[in-house]
Structures are given as structure tokens and as C-alpha cells.
Design a protein that fits this description.
It comes from Adineta steineri. This is F-box domain-containing protein. By secondary structure, the chain is mainly alpha-helical. It has one domain. Helix content is about 50%, strand content about 10%. Strands 1-2-3 form a three-stranded parallel beta sheet, with no helix packed on it. The radius of gyration is 25 Å and the shape is elongated.
């Protein structure tokens, strides 16, 4: 009787292990399928998605993913909205060098409210006249000495 009970428990455990493995395989396949589908979206659809997101987040997520996404970000004409309200100085320096300065012609909206960023000579506050397509400028917590 005890032997039959052990066999039954082993069968149940084997069944559970097989089901778990099957679920894991299906999950991995679904994840791979999702990634493949996302990467296969058209450029136009990717631009629509990018427009819905903060450009800083697009930059962080897709900048170094692969050559296609790099080109989608840097060779597009979609307008850029820049919000520098809650960004660290080191992140700002990288973002300023990689995004703001080379894309001044694409920036349509600029929100500045972090006083620690205004000392840099290449800070957007010092080069406002170079933003040719700027439509919205929001300045918060800025001392008059920076203007």
C-alpha cells in the first residue's frame, strides 16, 4: 500500500514538473514572439510610439539597443520635448551632449527648473537663441542672474 502511494505521489510530481516546464517554454516563446513583433513594427508606428513618450525615456531605452533604433532617434524629424526638471547633473551632461546640442533644430518644447544645471556654458538657458523651432519655454526656479 505504501509503495502504491509513493508511485502515485511521484506521478503527480512528474506531472507537475512537466506542466511547469511546458508553461515555462510557452512563456519564453511568447516573450520571444513579443520582442520579435516589437522590433518588426514599421518606422512610422515606432515614431508614433516615440511621440507618446518623454524623449528622455526614449533616449534611455532605445539609444544603444541597435543600429535601427539609433537611426530612428537621430535621423528623424519628430519634434522633441525636453523636460529637465528632475534630472541629475551627470545625466544632464550626457543628455545635453548627446541629445540637446545636436538636435537644437528639433526641440519644440523646453522645460527648465533645475538650478544646478545652469552653470554650464552649454546649458540650454545660455543658448536659447539657437533653438529655432522652440514653441514652448517653461522656466521655473531660475534666478535672474542666469537670464
Amino acid at each position: 500500500m505504501e509503495q502504491i502511494e509513493r508511485q502515485r505521489n511521484n506521478n503527480i510530481n512528474n506531472y507537475s514538473d512537466n506542466e511547469t516546464q511546458k508553461i515555462e517554454v510557452e512563456t519564453n516563446c511568447l516573450l520571444k514572439e513579443f520582442v520579435t513583433c516589437f522590433e518588426n513594427l514599421s518606422n512610422e508606428l515606432m515614431y508614433e510610439i516615440f511621440e507618446l513618450l518623454d524623449f528622455h525615456h526614449v533616449y534611455k531605452a532605445f539609444y544603444s539597443l541597435n543600429a535601427r533604433f539609433y537611426n530612428l532617434i537621430f535621423n528623424s524629424t519628430i519634434p522633441i520635448e525636453v523636460n529637465l526638471s528632475s534630472i541629475s547633473k551627470s545625466t544632464f551632461q550626457r543628455y545635453n551632449k548627446d541629445i540637446i546640442l545636436p538636435n537644437k533644430h528639433r526641440i519644440h518644447s523646453l522645460h527648465l527648473s533645475n538650478p544646478c544645471l545652469y552653470d554650464d556654458i552649454s546649458s540650454p538657458i545660455h543658448i536659447l537663441s539657437q533653438f529655432l523651432h522652440l514653441k514652448t519655454l517653461s522656466l521655473n526656479n531660475i534666478a535672474s542672474k542666469y537670464l
